[in-house]
């Protein structure tokens, strides 16, 4: 029973302080919206795939051990993609349009297990920049890998395509707005609980009974002075009428 009463008090406090919750949610969502649309830098992503081989792919007689050797070298090829030698050449062929640090931060390499395919991804603040960086990185890698490894063959399977309507991959606006909504609700509820804990005023009969430790037998509603005036006037009028009637009765007797 006590747990039920406590739950009622909790929900009652939340109901009374709903404007705190709504205000906190509105504030957090507004701040997040300003950040997402006016402050945050959008990030665009482009991808390309390359097929790596230890032996020349033009050979028709490829043995199973050759395929296994290719798989074992995928990690090595992945590291070479982001090596300073490749990045320096990419920077040069792009006309120093992007610095080597920008290219290094933009390029990411992923490879699936038991696969000779390497996926090269570039994330940049513009869709065109991401497309240029990832395509040029794949081209330089394809051209340089025979010189670096003294063997091997790389084939570009797909190139990244630039589109003016391409949407950014970061920040995730819907996710961030949902997160700001949840954070605002939590902040509002915390404000209500803190206010309830430090608020010592009596708001109900139950609060009075708990504070004094006594049983409440009844309650009297509060009246404003203006509400008492009509009753006072009625009593005064009744008293004057009664006095007048008594005076008239005495006069008739005399």
UniProtKB/TrEMBL annotation:
<feature type="transmembrane region" description="Helical">
    <location>
        <begin position="175"/>
        <end position="194"/>
    </location>
</feature>
<dbReference type="InterPro" id="IPR032807">
    <property type="entry name" value="GNVR"/>
</dbReference>
<keyword id="KW-0812">Transmembrane</keyword>
<dbReference type="GO" id="GO:0004713">
    <property type="term" value="F:protein tyrosine kinase activity"/>
</dbReference>
<dbReference type="Pfam" id="PF13807">
    <property type="entry name" value="GNVR"/>
</dbReference>
<keyword id="KW-1003">Cell membrane</keyword>
<dbReference type="InterPro" id="IPR050445">
    <property type="entry name" value="Bact_polysacc_biosynth/exp"/>
</dbReference>
<feature type="domain" description="Polysaccharide chain length determinant N-terminal">
    <location>
        <begin position="4"/>
        <end position="94"/>
    </location>
</feature>
<dbReference type="Pfam" id="PF02706">
    <property type="entry name" value="Wzz"/>
</dbReference>
<keyword id="KW-1133">Transmembrane helix</keyword>
<dbReference type="InterPro" id="IPR003856">
    <property type="entry name" value="LPS_length_determ_N"/>
</dbReference>
<comment type="similarity">
    <text>Belongs to the CpsC/CapA family.</text>
</comment>
<feature type="compositionally biased region" description="Basic and acidic residues">
    <location>
        <begin position="229"/>
        <end position="254"/>
    </location>
</feature>
<keyword id="KW-0472">Membrane</keyword>
<dbReference type="GO" id="GO:0005886">
    <property type="term" value="C:plasma membrane"/>
</dbReference>
<protein>
    <submittedName>
        <fullName>Capsular biosynthesis protein</fullName>
    </submittedName>
</protein>
<feature type="transmembrane region" description="Helical">
    <location>
        <begin position="20"/>
        <end position="40"/>
    </location>
</feature>
<feature type="domain" description="Tyrosine-protein kinase G-rich">
    <location>
        <begin position="142"/>
        <end position="196"/>
    </location>
</feature>
<feature type="region of interest" description="Disordered">
    <location>
        <begin position="227"/>
        <end position="254"/>
    </location>
</feature>
